[in-house]
Structure to design on (124 residues):
């Protein structure tokens, strides 16, 4: 019984040690709707595998939803309102040191532009 408990505890600690350190502020220049670069500021909070926080791209900060951390992969989405239409924007990222390589895509929208890739850097 004691061995099983110690083994389970070590397993939990190993997963926590492998998880990427994404907590904090990150910034990225990403293509905007008109093709010009837009500064995106992410503020992430991590609680185990749960990722929360905000995204601000100059139009006001919005809460991220359904955020997950899985090793060095993160994912979440935000909902923005454009002209009375709610748009769900999904983000998937791979963390490598002080960078996150993101793919951003718009979901559930006919005629959505193709996914966009960009890199965020940890802010000091």
């Amino acid at each position: 019984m004691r061995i099983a408990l110690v083994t389970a505890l070590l397993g939990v600690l190993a997963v926590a040690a492998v998880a990427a350190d994404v907590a904090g502020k990150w910034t990225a220049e990403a293509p905007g709707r008109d093709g010009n670069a837009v500064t995106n500021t992410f503020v992430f909070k991590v609680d185990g595998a749960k990722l929360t926080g905000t995204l601000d791209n100059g139009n006001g900060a919005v809460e991220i939803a359904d955020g997950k951390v899985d090793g060095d992969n993160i994912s979440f989405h935000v909902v923005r309102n454009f002209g009375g239409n709610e748009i769900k924007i999904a983000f998937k990222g791979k963390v490598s040191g002080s960078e996150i390589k993101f793919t951003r895509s718009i979901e559930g929208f006919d005629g959505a532009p193709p996914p966009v890739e960009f890199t965020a850097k940890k802010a000091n």
User: Anything to note?
Assistant: Confidence is low (pLDDT under 50) at residues 5-10, 12-17.
